[in-house]
């Protein structure tokens, strides 16, 4: 899918600004809103590591335009070539910029590659519908290299890979040993309500508990500001625990889905970006399986 070029599209810019968070480690912090035509799909945190011989990119953003701007921002900081790209999971804001890096090795977990094979074209078409001209010339570029080991030396940086699941069936956390920077992908959200279209809440909470135990100097969540004390883990765990309890209690009380969507959200979550809208979406995604699991217990 592609759009015809026009002058308005040429004026669009993500205005990416790299934020240094560790020795040779930089991030681009996205909006905490929904995908829309104002932000062009830039609701994601991406990053890069400068190694001895090249650059390692963590996620490539929602479009070719984003990937190209990311690459230009990297080039303004270091002349070293981008040699490796790591994709944390298959949601579109994390990998649809791959075309801008198709001369590098693009790595992902097998589960992520399989999900892109299954859903990639649909995700791409949906992004075109949601953000329009920002997606011009964006095409699907699948990761060509599978991550199947716990550590790798990439461009002179030792990277630890933690294969987990819960947000999706394949969530990769990435830890840079030199700087102590931990990229969580979308396992952690910070001051932004978690999204759940492919979620298994129980597995997700176990993954967060595992990440909490890991050593780190800086946490880069998938969405929201960088932090240093694990608050993104605690906040995401707290929200997921409340969401799970609320849905199961509502099912056991015989509520209809539309009634659940109107339930009160606790005060501590109301300050999270897009709290009501994401709660409604989560009910729509998760309610059928909750009801299916709860009904047999009610009639035992």
Account of the 3D structure:
This protein has nine helices and twelve strands. It has helices at residues 7-11, 64-77, 92-95, 110-131, 201-212, 231-252, 257-261, 267-270, 275-298; strands at residues 19-22, 25-28, 46-50, 55-58, 82-86, 105-108, 145-146, 151-154, 157-164, 171-176, 181-183, 218-220. Strand 6 (105-108), helix 4 and strand 7 form a beta-alpha-beta unit. With 300 residues, the chain is of the alpha/beta class. The model is unreliable at 1-5 (pLDDT under 50). The strands form two sheets. A seven-stranded mixed beta sheet has the order 1-2-3-4-5-6-7.
Summarize it:
The protein has 300 residues and is of the alpha/beta class. 37% of the residues lie in helices and 17% in strands.
Identify the notable features of this structure and list them briefly.
alpha/beta; 7-stranded mixed sheet; 5-stranded mixed sheet; 9 helices
Please write the string of helix (H) and strand (E) elements: HEEEEHEHEHEEEEEHEHHHH
Q: For the largest beta sheet, what order do the strands appear in spatially?
A: 1-2-3-4-5-6-7
Largest sheet: 7 strands, mixed
Question: How much helix, percentage-wise, in residues?
Answer: 25-40%
* Estimated structural class: alpha/beta
Please state the oligomeric state of the protein chains shown: single chain
Number of helices: 9
Radius of gyration based on Cα positions: 19 Å
Low-confidence stretches: 1-5
Quote the beta fraction.
Answer: 15-25%
Q: Look at the structure and give the mean pLDDT.
A: 95
Report the count of strand segments.
12
Task: Report how far the terminal alpha carbons are from each other.
Answer: 51 Å
What is the 3D form?
globular
């Amino acid at each position: 899918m592609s759009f015809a070029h026009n002058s308005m599209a040429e004026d669009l810019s993500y205005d990416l600004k790299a934020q240094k968070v560790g020795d040779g480690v930089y991030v681009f912090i996205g909006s905490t809103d929904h995908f829309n035509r104002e932000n062009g799909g830039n609701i994601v945190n991406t990053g890069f590591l400068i190694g001895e011989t090249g650059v390692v990119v963590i996620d490539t953003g929602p479009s070719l335009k984003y990937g190209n701007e990311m690459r230009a921002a990297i080039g303004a900081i270091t002349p070293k070539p981008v040699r490796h790209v790591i994709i944390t999971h298959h949601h579109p804001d994390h990998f649809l910029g791959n075309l801008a890096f198709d001369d590098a090795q693009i790595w992902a977990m097998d589960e992520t590659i399989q999900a892109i094979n299954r859903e990639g074209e649909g995700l791409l078409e949906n992004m075109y519908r949601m953000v329009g001209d920002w997606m011009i010339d964006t095409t699907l570029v699948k990761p060509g290299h599978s991550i199947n080991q716990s550590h790798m030396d990439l461009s002179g940086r030792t990277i630890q890979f933690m294969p987990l699941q819960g947000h999706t069936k394949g969530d990769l956390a990435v830890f840079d040993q030199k700087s102590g920077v931990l990229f969580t992908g979308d396992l952690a959200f910070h001051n932004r309500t978690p999204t759940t279209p492919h979620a298994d809440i129980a597995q997700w909470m176990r993954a967060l508990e595992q990440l909490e135990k890991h050593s780190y100097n800086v946490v880069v969540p998938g969405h929201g500001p960088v932090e240093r004390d694990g608050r993104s883990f605690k906040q995401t765990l707290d929200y997921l625990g409340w969401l799970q309890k609320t849905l199961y209690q509502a099912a056991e009380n015989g509520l209809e889905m539309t009634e659940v969507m109107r339930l009160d959200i606790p005060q501590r979550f109301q300050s999270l970006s897009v709290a009501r809208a994401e709660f409604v979406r989560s009910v729509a995604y998760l309610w059928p399986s909750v009801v299916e699991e709860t009904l047999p217990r009610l009639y035992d």
